[in-house]
Predict the structure.
Amino acid sequence: MKTRSRLAFWGVATLTPLAMLTGASAWAQTAKPGDPAAAQKKVAMCIGCHGIPGYQASFPEVHKVPMISGQNAKYIAAALLAYQKGDRKHPTMKGIAASLSEQDIADLAAYYEASGKNLPATPAKGGAATPEVTALLNKGACASCHGDGLNQPRDASYPKLAGQHADYLYVALKSYQTDKNAKIGRSNAIMAGQVKQFTLAELKLLANHIGGLGGDLKTVPQAKFK
């Protein structure tokens, strides 16, 4: 974990449990730069979940679908490619990702990054971190990748986490502890090793705290759902 070779592979100074939520293996983009306008014709498959405030999924357990408006385009693209390749296991997302070309992914990623800009930041809902949560954040060195307030990642391939739905964060973190399941889990050996440092109770504490932070992530209702 602390060897120079592994750090060089990931291109970061410090590897953290939450940093690897990205599923961010290097994305070699050969497509043209993403075009948010072009994505207007491609976004229909996304808005049924990500365009409805408070929409809940039921797999692998009930949780709100993640807010992706205002998220980094590079991270969104990396996540879609991970679903496409099966590194992230989720039947619905795999089916959607499999239908996308590299250019589709670039356009959709650019669209969602742009859709949250120029909108007010989501206000904080929680209080200051408790000593226990502070210790967990320090143990994971979360800010070393996700930046100030866990909302300014050091690299765009890492996600903004602040204000994300806590129940989604909890499910995402737990997915790296799942082994040998054809339908559930995220395949990332380094992330799995990191997350296994924490108990489920500790992951929930982290998720609840991060979900209460103010940040840029939003669900922007699409016209048909407003």
